[in-house]
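Hello,

I think I submitted the methionine sulfoxide job twice by accident. Can you confirm which output corresponds to this input? Input:
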Amino acid sequence: ADESENTDQRLKEVCELLQSSIGYYDWVGFYFANEVEKTLHLKAFAGEPTDHTVIPFGKGICGQVAVSNQNFVVPDVKAQDNYIACSITVKSEIVIPLFKNGKNIGQIDIDSHMEDPFSEEDERFLEWVNEEVANIL
Ligand code: SME
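Support: Only one job matched these inputs. Its output is below.
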C-alpha cells in the first residue's frame, strides 16, 4: 500500500479503537479541511455510515470548529440551532480541532447516544489523540 492508504488505514484503526473501547463514543470520525473549497471531508470513521461526508466551513458543529479553532462540547444537540443531524439516536457531540504545525487542518468528531457524557477529561484525552495523529500525517 502507498503512504496515503497507510495513513487512511491507521486513522480508521484509531476510530475503531476509540469507538469500541469507550462505551459512550458511538460514532468516531476524522474530518480534514480543504482550504481552497472551504469544506471539511470525512477521511475515516467507525460507527454508522453518514451522509455528511462533506461539510462547508461554518455549518454544523464541525463547520464551526473549522473556523473557531476551539473545542466544541455539545451536551444536548437539541439545544443547538447550527447543527447537522446525522442520526436521531445521537444526543450529544464533541469536536476537537486537530493542529499540524500550529494550523487547524481537521478535527475529531464524536457522537454519543448518551446525554451530557463528555467531560474535560475527554477534551484533554482527545487533544492528546489528535497530537499523536498529527505525527503520522
Ligand atoms: N453533527 C455534525 C455533523 C457530522 S455527524 O455528527 C457525523 C455537525 O453538526 O457538524
